[in-house]
Each structure stands twice: as structure tokens, then as C-alpha cells.
Amino acid sequence: MKKILVATTALVAVTGFAVSASASEKIKLSVGGYMEQWAGITDQSDGFDNVNAFQSDTEIHFKGSTTLDNGIEVGAVVELEGETSGDQVDEQYLYINGSFGQIKLGEDDGAADDMGITAPAVGPVGVNDGDLTNWVSTYLPDTVPSDGDDPKITYFTPVMGGFRAGVSYTDSDKAKNAGGTGGNLGQGTTEGLPVVSAGLSYDHDFDGVALGLSAVGEHKGQGNWYGLGANVGLGNFTVGGSWGHIEDDYGINDRQTSGDETDTYDIGVAYAMDAAKVSLSYAYSDYGNRSSSSTVSNTGEMSTVDLGLAYQLGAGVAWKSSIFWFDDDNDNSAADNDGYGAVTGLRLDF
């Protein structure tokens, strides 16, 4: 009798969910995305070739969702790269929203990347995990060095008193592809190691003073990276910064060797005035995780400054510019590089 009751209860639950699903509206995808077109000039040390003076970044986004009769929202996101030599699809995942929070399943950034706070910056280059290395040959500071868009499952709690927590799990890429390169089964940024990504954030407005805090990190292989971030908004000003630490045994690749840890921080201030925003930001890395070669050591020190401008010309049209300076003091003097540059262009959001 107990087995019959359990089976009946399960059948009723499944039937109820199916009825809710069938009564909801079918998902229809909308089209969006962005296009960035940049022109820039740079000057760097002798021995380093200048890169293309014109660069672009374009993505087409397909998004859609439906709300079931029980109030649960189910949706999908697919992002296509406009130009790429690798995966044509950047991110693709489904999500489920409800009073329980949010669940994501697919190829997307992990919880740490989604929740990490860094210094404010509005220009097209930036100092923290931005486009600096698109223009010059140098190390890129990054206080939130997440595992990327590999297949994963993510859970975010509801916001409670300004607090929100999240956790992601990415399975071993080698379990899907013996070569560890990902292909259609994943984007292959985990070096064949499972990754646990987690974060805790706080966001609240205290009578006109906006405060944002984050504590994030990931565990991969036998090591970890972790970091802290904070932004404070007061009137038209936003001031903030972040710090991140990568342990010497985080992952297993040519970037990490025993004793070579990485510490990075950034600080910045931004000011908004009607349609215009300006920012000044600085980042520093004492790094031990750079890809090494015959001429480049995986250890050194890096400093960079970016003066950014963003002006909203109209709905979905922004003019952005950056003037930047950098100094990469690699432990192999043959790879030392420093210089400066200027980049300007348009970003279209649609």
C-alpha cells in the first residue's frame, strides 16, 4: 500500500508540473547583442611588434523565457561570436528562476566571475581583465581569474538583506574529451580539472550611499584563488578596488610552478555627469602565472594605468576612449616591455 501511495504522489506531482508547463506560453527568442569597433595607436619597447590598429568585437544574443503556472520562470540564452578562430558559440545555458533563487545549466561564467567586484572603469581598454593585451604584448592583471565558459551547473540564492551567495561546479574536461581541448563538449579552460567556484556579495543603498562588497574564489586541482572587492557610490562619484591571490598550486599547467604565487590589486574612481562618464584606474600584479616561453619568464611585476571616457550619444550608442600606460618588468630582461597607447571607438547595444 505504501508503494502505491508513493507512486501515486509522484505521478500527481509530475502531472501537475506538466499541466503548468503546457498552460504556459511557448518560449520565443528575442535578438540582441552588441558591436564594438575600435581604432588605436600604441608605442611599446623595441622588439615588440605593434598590433592591428583597428579591432572589433561583436556578439549576437538570442534570449527567451516563459513563466509556468506555478510562477517558476524558465529561460534560455545563446550568445554567438561575430568573429572567432575558436568556438562560434560564446555562452549557452538555460536558467530557472523562482522563490528558491536561480539555477543555471550550460556553458557560462562561474559564480565567482558573476559576483566579483572590481575597480570602476568606463574606457574600452581598462586595467583589470580588460582589452590591454589586445593592443600591447604584456601580462594582464586579473583579480577574478575565473575558469571561463566551460559546461557547469550554478546556483544563486535569493537576495536576503542585500546578501546573495552562489556556487558553481565544472566537471573535469578530460572526462569529456581525452585531449582536454574541449571542442564541442566544452571550451577547455580548466586543464582537465574539476572546478568549484563560489561567491558572496552584498549590495545596499544607505540613504544615497551605495555599497557593494564581494568575496569570491575557486578551487581547481590542489590549489585555490580568492579575492575581495568593494565599490562605494556617493552622488556622481564611484570609488572602489579589488584584490586577488592565486596560489602556486592552482591548476596544473605551464603557468604555475612551486613558489610562484600571484597577487593583484586595482583601485579606481569614476565620475558621471549626465550622458558622460570618466574614470581613472590603476592595477598592479606581482605575478607568477604568466605563460612561459624561451624569452618570457612566468614571473615578474606589472603596473598599468587607464584614463577612460564614455559618452552616451543616443539609445544604444556610446562613444568610448582610453589613454593607457603600462610597465611590465619580467624576470627575463629580454621580455621587459613598457609603453602607452590611445584607443577610441563606438559601442552599439541592440
Automatic annotation (TrEMBL):
One GO BP: monoatomic ion transport
Protein topology in the membrane: Multi-pass membrane protein
Domain Porin: 7-329
Keyword GTP-binding: no
The keyword Transport is annotated on this UniProt entry: yes
GO cellular component, one term: cell outer membrane
SUPFAM superfamilies, per database record: Porins
Signal sequence bounds: 1-23
Subunit (UniProt): Homotrimer.
Name this protein carries in UniProt: Porin
Source organism superkingdom: Bacteria
Molecular function GO labels: porin activity
Compartments in which it is found: Cell outer membrane
Keywords: Cell outer membrane, Ion transport, Membrane, Porin, Signal, Transmembrane, Transmembrane beta strand, Transport
Pfam families: Porin_4
